[in-house]
């Protein structure tokens, strides 16, 4: 076969992919020759990736164009809701979409609106195999070598990116994470590939805190990550009684600068649990659990466990989501209380209510009182305020903001229940929002993710009047570290 058999479809794939991205992107793509060359290399690699499965040039070119079309649509939606382009770590979440379609604003695979197009796509590919002949060299031996050689070459190219020489080259192109800039320069595909290789080539060393002798001051430490929580008065909603109690009784409270807007719970979660700023995580900042799988020496749970606390994680949702069951065991949690432990608990909308979670936290604290350790550290992640916000979620309440305000009132009740339940103990209670809600009319500010709210209570001791102190999520984690580490 002539070279035109391969290069004409490839040229169509490269020019078509650029046109798709340029039309869909909110940023003007860079036209500098070096940037265009890197962008084209990304498109070419995607085309070759699909080509190794079919050995049909036009099918591979069409698959490249379809890939870019899908990525561009998802990228546009993600920018609108979260304010961030698609990134390589998002691919790790694809397996969760069919298992939890409601969380990704899509439909189950069994729904005809999803199953129909998928079946049509399969039929189209099968028909294409019949219409377009395979572009393989003549002779069985040459064909086998070609079929085996291309996947090996692609794998070798990826491994070359992990060598010292490859990493030096990648560091010149992607010196540090700057997602919006890099996507505008190099396109989605090349940026995703480059960021993935930079992440795999990073040193995962983490600081190990010094161990101290003695005992922590608290017998109970409860940290609750409240799903999509911020003071509803900031959204023109009603004043929560819980916010008045926070301002009157908390040791400190204020705005919490979080790493993401409207999603990516794990980023705030990781920052608070470890005290590590996203900037310190390099290219692992986009999904810290994917990057480290919970191997964190500074984890609050590990520190608490070393100081003699029983460590408990409470989360009324599936164990497999974000791979939390495995990650949280590695973070240092001895017991996991998850969705199966909330059988019979009331759901408010699609998810277990926040008040039920607060009751379970207090039950775990009471149980810990009679344990051999005598100290309890509980980290909890709530679910009631999780999206999507759409008609049918609550009976008679269809407007998204009204749904959110209905749920956040229960969050306030849960906070008050925790305050009342822990006030008689020598205890620390921290509550904080992981990110702003992904409401249709609450777009991410151009300056970065919208701050949430937090509060820190110190029960059973005299203290100064409540103070407003604005923090980052990582700074809050460092403050909490003092509650679970022994005092000299």
From TrEMBL:
Keywords: Cell membrane, Membrane, Transmembrane, Transmembrane helix
Residue ranges of every copy of the Sulfatase N-terminal domain listed in the record: 221-439
Recorded GO CC terms: plasma membrane
Protein name listed in UniProt: Sulfatase
Lineage top rank: taxon: Bacteria
Subcellular location: Cell membrane
Entry annotated with the keyword Ribonucleoprotein: no
Transmembrane segments: 6-24, 36-52, 58-74, 112-131, 143-162
Membrane topology summary: Multi-pass membrane protein
InterPro entries: Alkaline_phosphatase_core_sf, OpgB/LTA_synthase_biosynth, Sulfatase_N
Keyword Secreted: no
Organism, scientific name: Methylorubrum extorquens DSM 13060
A Pfam family of this chain: Sulfatase
């Amino acid at each position: 076969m002539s070279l035109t058999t391969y290069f004409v479809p490839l040229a169509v794939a490269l020019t078509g992919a650029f046109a798709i991205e340029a039309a869909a992107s909110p940023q003007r793509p860079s036209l500098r020759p070096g940037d265009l060359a890197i962008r084209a290399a990304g498109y070419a690699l995607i085309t070759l990736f699909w080509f190794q499965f079919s050995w049909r040039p036009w099918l591979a070119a069409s698959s490249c164009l379809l890939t870019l079309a899908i990525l561009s649509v998802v990228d546009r939606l993600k920018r609108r809701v979260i304010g961030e382009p698609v990134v390589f770590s998002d691919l790790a979440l694809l397996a969760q979409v069919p298992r939890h379609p409601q969380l990704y604003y899509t439909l189950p695979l069994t729904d005809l609106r999803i199953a129909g197009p998928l079946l049509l796509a399969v039929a189209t590919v099968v028909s294409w195999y019949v219409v377009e002949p395979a572009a393989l060299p003549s002779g069985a031996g040459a064909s086998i070598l070609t079929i085996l050689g291309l996947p090996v070459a692609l794998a070798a190219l990826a491994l070359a990116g992990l060598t010292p020489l490859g990493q030096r080259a990648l560091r010149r192109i992607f010196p540090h994470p700057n997602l919006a800039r890099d996507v505008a320069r190099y396109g989605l595909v090349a940026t995703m590939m480059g960021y993935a290789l930079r992440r795999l080539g990073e040193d995962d060393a983490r600081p190990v805190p010094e161990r101290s002798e003695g005992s922590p001051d608290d017998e109970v430490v409860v940290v609750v990550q409240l799903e999509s929580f911020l003071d509803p008065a900031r959204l023109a909603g009603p004043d929560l009684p819980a916010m008045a109690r926070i301002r009157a009784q908390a040791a400190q409270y204020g705005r919490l600068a979080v790493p993401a807007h409207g999603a990516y719970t794990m980023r705030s979660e990781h920052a608070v649990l470890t005290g590590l700023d996203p900037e310190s995580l390099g290219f692992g900042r986009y999904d810290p659990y994917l990057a480290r799988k919970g191997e964190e020496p500074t984890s609050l749970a590990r520190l608490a466990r070393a100081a003699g606390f029983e460590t408990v994680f409470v989360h009324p949702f599936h164990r497999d989501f974000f791979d939390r069951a495995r990650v949280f065991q590695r973070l240092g949690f001895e017991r996991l209380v998850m969705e199966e432990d909330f059988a019979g608990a009331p759901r408010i909308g699609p998810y277990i209510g926040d008040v039920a979670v607060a009751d379970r936290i207090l039950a775990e604290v009471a149980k810990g009182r009679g344990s051999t350790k005598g100290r309890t550290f509980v980290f909890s992640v709530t679910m009631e305020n999780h999206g999507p916000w759409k008609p049918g979620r609550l009976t008679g309440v269809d407007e998204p903001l009204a749904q959110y305000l209905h749920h956040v009132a229960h969050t306030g009740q849960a906070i008050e229940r925790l305050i009342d339940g822990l006030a008689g103990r020598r205890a620390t209670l921290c509550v904080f929002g992981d990110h702003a809600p992904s409401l249709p009319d609450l777009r991410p500010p151009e300056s970065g993710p919208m701050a949430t709210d937090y509060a820190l209570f110190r029960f059973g001791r005299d203290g100064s009047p409540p103070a407003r102190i604005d923090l980052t999520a990582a700074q809050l984690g460092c403050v909490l570290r003092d509650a679970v580490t022994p005092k000299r």
